[in-house]
């Protein structure tokens, strides 16, 4: 693993408003990273600084070991801004080729790469369409195709699935997931369930202050499972406490339990599911560790 992005003590203010307040983090290659936070938390500002659109007031950013703006970074980092759009006058192929040329590709290379990225996003047959002839979801996919031109190593996607119907959103998610072995994505979204599925690493911004969370970190002598049951079963919490290997049970929401158990307990998840069956409980979902929502917002 190598470090893709290293941010140290980054601050950016607009007048008296601190959009980023002493933000530091690193992102390693191979991680799909979520950038989460309430409206106005500083997410777009952080993306804009990483892309070089905005100059920070203080702090440093290194991408692939180089400072922002270094010539060797040209084409290595791409971004899909929240409100990205394309020119309605030209076909999508023409526009993507144009962006390829701007990246320094020859005409032939730009056309080849346009064909490649349109195929990746499933829009090969629409290469002659103009943007207004495409659905909202297809337009998003064109914008993602544009971000993938030239094979960038890091792609920042700001609200890539916002406003899409569930089927189109799912297509974009599976596209991100299928590409994530070759490209490191940083996704900004308000959809925690979506980030839960895609991301191993979470950057949480609130009022410009950042905290980081590792989704897969389950170390030490105890581990966690989050169990969501179908119904409110009588004495479920007390009964869960009696299961062998359980150290502690807390109730995060109605019908949802966080179970801390001995890490040394073999196949605890299987035992838990058998226990549900034995007690006649239907379960809705079982998450390894904490759900992202609990990780970010649970107070105790
Ligand atoms: N160009 C600007 N001029 C003045 N204030 C700005 C500017 N850009 C951002 N801000 C302020 O900085 C703060 C962070 O804004 P930012 O757009 O980064 O938040 P965000 O997390 O992307 O929000 P959202 O989820 O609503 O898109 C907000 O208080 C915003 O009002």
UniProtKB/TrEMBL annotation:
GO MF term (any one): ATP hydrolysis activity
CDD domains attached to this UniProt entry: ABC_DR_subfamily_A
Cited Gene3D superfamilies: P-loop containing nucleotide triphosphate hydrolases (3.40.50.300)
Keywords attached to this entry: ATP-binding, Nodulation, Nucleotide-binding, Transport
Keyword Transcription part of the UniProt annotation: no
Stored PROSITE patterns: ABC_TRANSPORTER_1 (PS00211), ABC_TRANSPORTER_2 (PS50893)
Entry-linked InterPro entries: AAA+_ATPase (IPR003593), ABC_transporter-like_ATP-bd (IPR003439), ABC_transporter-like_CS (IPR017871), ABC_transporter_ATP-binding (IPR050763), P-loop_NTPase (IPR027417)
A matching Pfam family: ABC_tran
Residue ranges constituting the ABC transporter domain according to the UniProt record: 5-232
Family per similarity comment: Belongs to the ABC transporter superfamily.
UniProt name for this protein: ABC transporter ATP-binding protein
Organism from which the protein derives: Pseudoalteromonas caenipelagi
């Amino acid at each position: 693993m190598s470090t893709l992005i290293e941010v140290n003590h980054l601050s950016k203010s607009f007048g008296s408003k601190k959009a980023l307040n002493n933000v530091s983090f690193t992102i390693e290659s191979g991680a799909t990273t979520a950038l989460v936070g309430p409206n106005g938390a500083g997410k777009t500002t952080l993306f804009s600084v990483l892309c070089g659109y905005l100059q920070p007031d203080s702090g440093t950013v290194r991408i692939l070991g180089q400072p922002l703006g270094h010539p060797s970074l040209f084409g290595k980092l791409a971004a899909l801004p929240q409100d990205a759009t394309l020119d309605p006058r030209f076909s999508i192929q023409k526009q993507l080729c144009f962006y390829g040329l701007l990246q320094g590709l020859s005409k032939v290379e730009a056309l080849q790469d346009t064909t490649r990225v349109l195929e990746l996003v499933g829009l090969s047959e629409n290469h002659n369409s103009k943007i207004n002839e495409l659905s909202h979801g297809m337009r998003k996919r064109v914008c993602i195709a544009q971000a993938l031109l030239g094979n960038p190593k890091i792609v920042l996607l700001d609200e890539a699935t916002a406003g899409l119907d569930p089927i189109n959103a799912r297509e974009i998610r599976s596209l991100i997931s299928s590409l994530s072995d070759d490209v490191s994505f940083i996704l900004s979204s308000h959809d925690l369930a979506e980030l839960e599925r895609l991301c191993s690493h979470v950057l949480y911004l609130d009022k410009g202050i950042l905290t980081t969370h590792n989704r897969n970190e389950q170390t030490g002598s105890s581990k966690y499972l989050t169990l969501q049951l179908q119904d409110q079963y009588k004495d479920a919490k007390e009964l869960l406490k009696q299961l062998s290997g359980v150290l502690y049970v807390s109730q995060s929401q109605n019908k949802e339990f966080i179970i801390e158990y001995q890490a040394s307990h073999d196949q605890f998840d299987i035992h838990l599911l058998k226990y549900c069956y034995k007690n006649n409980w239907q379960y809705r979902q079982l998450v390894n560790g904490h759900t992202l929502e609990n990780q970010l917002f649970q107070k105790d």
